[in-house]
Amino acid sequence: MNLHMISIYLLFILSGCQLKSSDKEIMTLNGKISDEEMGKALIHEHVLVDFRGYGHADYGNWNKNDAKAKVLPYLLALKEKGVNTFIECTPAYLGRDVELLRVLSEESGLQIITNTGYYAAVDYKYLPDHAYTETADQLAERWIHEFESGIENTGIKPGFIKISVNPLDTLPDVDEKIVRAACRTHKETGMTIASHTGSYKTAIAQLAILAEEGIHPSAFIWVHAQMETNFNTYEELANKGVWISLDGVVWDVNGHLQRLLFAKEKGILDHILISHDAGYYSPDPQDEVDFKPYTAIFDELIPELKNEGFTLEELDLLLVKNPARAFKISVRDKK
What we know:
With 335 residues, the chain is an alpha/beta fold. 45% of the residues lie in helices and 13% in strands. Strands 6-7-8-9-10-11 form a 6-stranded parallel beta sheet. A 3-stranded parallel beta sheet has the order 3-4-5. The longest helix is centred in the first third of the chain and has 20 residues, at 3-22. The radius of gyration is 20 Å and the shape is globular.
């Protein structure tokens, strides 16, 4: 093979590698990064949450400087723990503020990922009026537009779909529509669906919709799976490809320790995600929130895991490899 042919062959190989890596992109506030650049990540945290509900007169009128002053020291402390990426799970109409997140990202040095989607739990308190009248396809169009063009004219794009449903065995029509809209958004964008769920039966109800929509379970994150007390359900759904999100560490370190010991015993650590569900700044003057730091995993849980024989490779799986796989932009069709 002459030098010219070798050059063509190398270009072909390199081109193939680039195509392969493009399937592993993560969407941050500042654009796409590779899975290798994601580094150590917390997959479910909050910066600002407004529990007053959709349509509140002060929605979006919080003081960004006050919020930044409150949250930034906690993010800087997190950066000192070696965390690279912070996934912010507050959806629209519950306090999502991507401009605030951009400032915090710049000043903390953390890569931040935001979301699109709607929050149906708490009896639809945070749903906009059009969520009742529009079809699943129309809602999906809104979320796809945010992915393609940016959120609220900021140019900032979401990196995943955050939805929630009410904790019921059978989903009401509105909840089902939200899930179908998320499925159709996933098909067009490749963004992962992270659904505030809780119980196994509610997770199963959503997975049935994914199956109808032709989407593989690996596109679905079972958020707040720590609320399910039957650990065997983790093994069942992990073996189907579902991401099991144990994301309330700051609220119950020992409970998460027991679930992780079970996951290790059953060989499903490669489908487990961990985080705190911590924060958050509240713009409601009537809401005196005790801000929860984002460091309990590092200060409390990891020492316990090491005492139980967890290796550095297993910790790396939980905090680096699994988040990159779970949040990569990739359409997961049902095979």
